[in-house]
Amino acid sequence: MSTNFFCKRVVSVPLTNVGLMFEISKTQMNFLRNARLLIFRSFSSPMQHSFTVSYLINSCGFSPETALSASRKVHFETPERADSVLAVLRDYGFTNTHISKAVSKYPSLLTAHPEKTLLPKLEFFRSVGFSGPDIVSIVVSSPFILKRSLENHVIPSYNFLKSVVMVNENILRAFKNPFWISCQNYLQNAIALNIATLEEIGVPMSNIRSLVTRQPDVVSRNREKFSTTVKKIIEMGFNPLRLSFLKAVEVSCQLTEFTFEHKMEVYRRWGLTNDEIMSMFRLDPSCIRSSEKKIMSVMDFLVNKMGWEPAAIGRYPFVFYRSLEKNIIPRCSVRKVLQMKGLVKKDLCLGFLCKGEKDFLEKFVVKYEQDVPELLNVYQGKIGILELGFVSEKGDKTVVASQLHSSK
C-alpha cells in the first residue's frame, strides 16, 4: 500500500516541475560533493604539515598530540630556519625543556629571523644586566616578547619599569607578566599618574613597586576611577602605610560593586553582620574574592561539622581561600582526634590552619605520634576518625566525628 501511495505521489507531480526537481537534485549533489571535499581537506591538512609535526616531536620534544595542535599555528617545510632559532636559544642557555615550553606557547617562534628578530632582544636583556637564567625565565614565561619591537616596545617598557621598580629583580618579575607584552604608552602614562596618587596619600614606594610588579592591570586603570577606589578604601578604615591597603585597592578594582555586595550577602546568610564582614575584609581583603560555592562549603564544614561560631571564623578570613580537601578537613581531623584524647584544648583557635605544612606536622602530628600512632594516617586521609574507635566523655561516638568521617 505504501508503494502504491509513493507511485501515486510521483505520478501526480506535474511535468512542469520535473525540471525543477532535477535542478534541485543537481544542487544537492554538488553540495554533497563539496562537503566531502571539505571533510577530506580537513583530515588531510595534518598530512600536509607532516614535516612540521615531525620536527616538533624530534627537535622540540613535543608529544604527537601537542605537535599536531601546534602545527595549526606554524608551518615550515625545511629545517634550516628552525634549526637556527634553536641554536640561538641554546647559546643563551635554553634547555630542551625550556625550548619545548616556549615553543608550545608561541609556535611561530621557530620561524622568527634569528639575527633580525631574536638576537637584538636577547642581547639587549644581557646588556642591561640580566643573567642567562633570567633571560631564559623571561622568554619561557612570555615568549611573545620576542616578537615585539625592540625600539618601540621592549626598551621603552624596560626604561619605564626601571624608573618605577628600579631593580632588575622586580623588572624580571614584571616582564614575566603578559601585561607588559601588550602595554602601550598610554597605559604607562596611566600607571605614572596613579602611582603619583598613591604617593600623595603616603603609600610606601616599596608597596607601590610590589603592586606594579604583581598587578599592573590594577594600577593602569583610568585615573578618575582609580582615585575613587582609593578614596573608598580609605573611608573603609584602611591604613595606606600597610600592605593590606593596596590589597584592598586591588580587590576593589577587580570586582564590580554588584559582585562585592553579593559576596557580602553570602556571608550574611551565616549570621555575620556588616561590621563583622567589613572587619574580615580589613583583616584580609582576599576573603571577598572567594567564590560563593567556596564560602558556603567552608562555612558549612566549620560551623555545622566542627562546631565553630561564624563570628569566630570571621576572625580568620584566610580560611576562605584555603583548600577544604587538602588543608581544612585533614587538619581539622587531626585536631578532633587530639581533642578526643585530651591532648589539646577544646577551644583551639583556627590559627592552626594557616601554619606551613612542616610547622603543622611538627606541632600537631610528630609531637603526638607516640600517643596516637595513627595520626599521620588520619592526616593523609588513609583512616577515618571512627575507625580509631574513639568515644566521647559520655561514652558515645561524637556527632562531630561522624560528620567529619562522612566529609572525607
Topology:
Layout lengths: L1 H10 L6 H31 L1 H11 L3 H7 L9 H12 L4 H10 L8 H14 L4 H10 L8 H15 L3 H8 L3 H4 L2 H16 L4 H10 L1 H4 L3 H13 L7 H12 L2 H12 L5 H10 L8 H14 L4 H5 L9 H17 L16 H9 L9 H5 L19 H9 L1
Features:
disordered C terminus, mainly alpha, disordered N terminus
Can you describe this structure?
The protein is 66% helix and 0% strand. With 408 residues, it is mainly alpha-helical.
Summarize the structure.
This protein is an all-alpha fold and 408 residues long. Helix content is 66%, strand content 0%. It has helices at residues 2-11, 18-48, 50-60, 64-70, 80-91, 96-105, 114-127, 132-141, 150-164, 168-175, 179-182, 185-200, 205-214, 216-219, 223-235, 243-254, 257-268, 274-283, 292-305, 310-314, 324-340, 357-365, 375-379, 399-407.
